[in-house]
User: What shape does this take?
Amino acid sequence: MKNLLTIAGSDSSGGAGIQADLKTFAAHGCYGMSVITAVTAQNTQGVFRVQDIEPEVITAQIDAVFSDIRVDAVKLGMLSQPAAIHAVAAGLRKYQPQVIVLDPVMVSKSGYNLLAEQACQDLINELLPLATLITPNIPEAEKLLGRSIATKEDMMQAAQELVHRQEVQNVLLKGGHLAGEADDYLYLGEGTGRWYESARIATKNTHGTGCTLSSALAANLAQGLTLPQAVEASKAYVTLAIEHSLSIGSGCGPTHHFVTMYKKAGIE
Assistant: This one.
């Protein structure tokens, strides 16, 4: 069994963040561990308050895990403050895990800023070069590059620019914010790219999809899939989870992380 570590924020409603990551790890047959960087008060309608964890506590969590348990892959999520980014970057440089998937979480679906303005450049300078793969959506890629992305051609150029200008190893640029279908573009560091196409699913229940996708990618990479294979498998997993998403709460409900397992168990 592979051991996976998520370094991210906690979602009190269970649909995103640490909770979504651990569910996704379990759904892929992996053992999940966590380093909590922030505690959020949120539900399906929005984020209402954030308490950042002190960097010394973040470092202590990282040391506690790596000093005792083999870590086969790391998923990075919400890192809202420069101090948290510095602590995580130092820990990753110290322990050098082979697989690092970075989901550059910046803004919640409800519009709450989850990355401080002064922390964006620290994210670019310290964490992007360490990541095996980054998984920005279009608004996040626009923030990283400082320009707009309006077409699929823009997406291809943006992914290439992230690799060649920002020293990113590989990029999966998610196209869900464009009109039309939900097509994603994978650009590899050696200069090759590939589109992954899927139909847009008519549902508002997409809370935590970015967290879920990046966690699935970490699990699939840890289990030996190539990057193109991992993207294909992870996208299929997320698509199925969205198709069977849960109408919980009054806002945007979560995806169904265990739909396949529930079906096999005969649970409706």
